[in-house]
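Complex 185.
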Amino acid sequence: MTKRIAVPLPKAYLLLNHGPTVLVSSAHDGRQNVMAAAWNMALDFDPPKVAVVIDKSTLTRELVEASGEFVLNVPSRQQAAMTLAVGTQSGREVDKFVKVGVGATAASAVGAPLIEGCLAWLECRVIAEPHIQKTYDLFLAEVVAAWADPQAFSAGRWHFPDEHRRSIHYQAGGNFFATGDAFEV
Ligand SMILES: Cc1cc2nc3c(=O)[nH]c(=O)nc-3n(C[C@H](O)[C@H](O)[C@H](O)COP(=O)(O)O)c2cc1C
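Predicted structure with flavin mononucleotide bound:
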């Protein structure tokens, strides 16, 4: 497992503030799964909350609704092919951990796993909002633990160590951007 440091909860929003595509990992009743999600955002500072769209057709949706938990994992440029692979196949048909070769390790506060090799992880508990879940596939959740690879994020700032370990942003059709260089104003 990638070395990771705890991110103080009031700083957890910083892991998503620049808009990276994430992996949503989930687990329930002995099954676990992972999918890609570009439609995610930070929602509050303290207690930190997130929003993410999880389509009705997905196995992830079933596991998240059953368990009330998920993890948002921030993948790196070198995990872009894996991100596309877990975003274009369903866990209903294949075990993506085996077929795609995704590594998983236990989280600290939720049953959903942390995806190995990522840059950051937000462990989340669903805030039940049945209307927006049903109507917009939109899930709100409280972040109950947050972690980052200290080589990529520390002291409240991202500082990507090399071209391979930058977060990614999805356009469409297998086309991504890598996060660019930071600048101050
Ligand atoms: C880069 C990328 C981003 C995606 N973003 C979302 C998203 O924000 N919400 C969503 O419901 N599906 C999104 N998808 C599609 C799901 O990842 C896809 O339906 C996946 O196969 C569902 O897997 P599951 O059935 O194993 O849960 C995205 C796919 C890709 C490739």
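Residues 5-178 form a domain with the Pnp Oxidase; Chain A fold (CATH 2.30.110.10).
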